[in-house]
Amino acid sequence: MPREQSVIAVFAYVDDMLTCLRHLRERNCDIRAVFSPMRLREVQEIMTPRPSTVRLFTLLGGILGGLGFVALAVYAHLSFKLITSGKPVLAWIPWVIVCFEGTILLAVSFSVIAWIVNGRLPRVRPAAGYDPRFSDNRFGILVLPSAAQREEIVRLLQSAGAEEIRDVAD
Amino acid sequence: MINLRFGDVNREILGALSAPGRLYWTVVGLLTLGVVYGALVWGYQVLTGVGVAGHRPPVMWGSYLVNFVFWVGIAHSGTLVSAILFLFRARWRTGISRAAEAMTVFAVMIATLFVLIHLGRPWVVYWVIPYPNQRYLWPDFQSPLVFDFLAVNTYFVVSLLFWYTGLVPDLASVRDRTSGIRQKIYGLFSLGWSGTHRQWHHYGASYLLLAALATPLVISVHSVVSWDFALSVIPGYHSTIFAPYFVAGAIHSGLAMVLTLLVPLRRIFHFENIITKDTLEMIAKTSIVMALIVGYAYIVEYFIAWYGGNRVERQTFIFRALGYYAPFFWIMCFCNVVAPLFFFWKRVRRSLACLLVIAILINIGMWLERFVIIIGSISQDFLPYQWGYYWPNWVEISIGFGTACLFFLWFLLFAKFVPSVAMAEVKEEVGAPMRAEEAGRAP
Fold it and tell me: Does B133 fall in a domain?
């Protein structure tokens, strides 16, 4: 059985690439990746319409950080063996600052970890089909056509204005 | 504001990473010598004891604390430019955000260094960390010093992560245009970034959240630093306006340092098309606002001292304006409030020499402000028998000089080995090429 081969198409113009992407979507093609040297809102709308889960991880980190730092403060004050008087042992009001710092620290840390893991990073080599021009001034679509679709997809990519089309081994 | 075509962004910005010339290495060498000198003097202080610095009762928090507050203040504008202006969609920030973020990270590191330097035994700094120990002693989470430890460290970690997150796509660009060991190093730090839609999706969500989380942090850090003073009872320290006053001062000094670094950077690396005069003019306009806020805070401090009716407080502020350190006070007023007002003239705002001179004056003024507040207030507090004057001695000046060299050395290395302008953001700013537009432009 022949190995399935993805096809990478390189575009110089973003509107060509977006038109092509919409056509591929309409044909329910298996679009593996869209490469770009910058954030493109239109690509996100077509490819990933659902909000990122990074938000949830950030919230989780914030809650853990805030509660964790206050818990640490409570533990530290209850563990203090020297008798001091005049002040309540558990002083909640100043710990608003402790809670705030913990919230921000862990929310940010979780957010960064979340985007790295969700983006399937770190990795030793860039993703399959990647071309160094994608970090400069070119855009790319990596698509895995079925054997029956293959010729039609290649024709579609050509007619959409791809300046280069080639096979990529999976 | 950026006069560049999409296809030229990488070439223009990565051009700065070409092999440095002899002048660059000469400056790096001189700064390294300054750092080594500072480190040797610190070593002398550690071996001999912290008494070799000029700290004497009643001034036990000398220039080290002045430097700490100064550098934390400098650190403010990086995140201000990156996070707050990002949320406000201020497009002029794009060309300068990366350098400002780097400045923040380096300035926080220098500030943290002063905490270590000020400790007689820096190797026991880990005692601040709460962990079960045989001494049964724990850090007091009600203390403003512990607030400060948490705030500054949180700020450092957040600034570093924010900076690094922005850097990842650009490091991948450098990776793709280098070879050998350099490619391996840039590849390692770019985490194997490929710019796929999935990566951009999560990256974009995270970057927005980081900006949103960093914004209140910027405000909180210098507020917490100000509470190191405001929560004490010393006249001149014990003031409710300290948090907004310190935050405004921090932004003022940070913007001035941004100008101090960017004006030469723009010239040396030929970033005229990216860091345009319009961008520098916007910073100058913001400096006018900050100068007015800082000037207002100076006046309000005097009003409170007069209207509050506290005799000791009033004496402290008379001493500040007319006493031993009065020249510093008046130089501070000129540098921080009067000098930036020259930016009201468009010709001054658009002159690189004027921008640089006024920015340096503000830097000097903001250092003096910290000196006047920190040293001046404890030189003459409640009881006349414990009044006393303080000057930094050669040990403190040498260490201060060494750390300043370290800051500029780090920035110089950053500018040569890391893209000092956010390429992906610049590409968003100039807009991706459209066939429809090109066809429209064709004759």
Answer: no
Asked if the structure places residue A124 within a domain, the reply is: no
Mutation site, B128, B162, B197, B425, interface A, largest A CB count within 10 A:
B197
Summary mean pLDDT of chain B: 90
Residue B198 C-alpha, separation from nearest chain A C-alpha, in angstroms: 6
- pLDDT confidence of residue B434: 81
In this complex, the residue of A116, A132, A161 whose CB is nearest that of residue B176 is A132
Query: Distance (Å, rounded) from C-alpha B253 to C-alpha B242?
Result: 16
Residue B35 vs residues B40, B81, B153: alpha-carbon distances, Å: 9, 29, 23
Answer yes or no: pTM beyond 0.90. yes
**Within-domain flag for B350:** yes
Flag the least confident range among A31-40, B87-96, B254-263: B87-96
A36 and A76 in a single domain? The answer is no
Look at B61 and B108; give whichever has higher pLDDT. Answer: B108
Whole-Å CA distances, A68 to A64, B139, B221, B288: 6, 16, 20, 42
Residue span of the structural domain in which B275 resides: 6-122+140-430
CA B421 to chain A, closest CA, distance in angstroms equals 14
Pair A162, A114 in one domain: no
Q: Consecutive 10-residue runs of chain A (170 residues): their mean pLDDT?
A: 77 92 89 92 88 95 96 88 73 91 96 95 88 92 88 90 85
Residue B263 counted as domain residue: yes
Range of the domain at A155: 6-50+130-168
Within a domain: residue B184? yes
Closest by Cα among B3, B5, B17 to B173: B17
Is residue A35 situated within a structural domain? yes
Q: Closest-CA residue in chain A for B128? A: A76
More confident residue, A166 or B442: A166
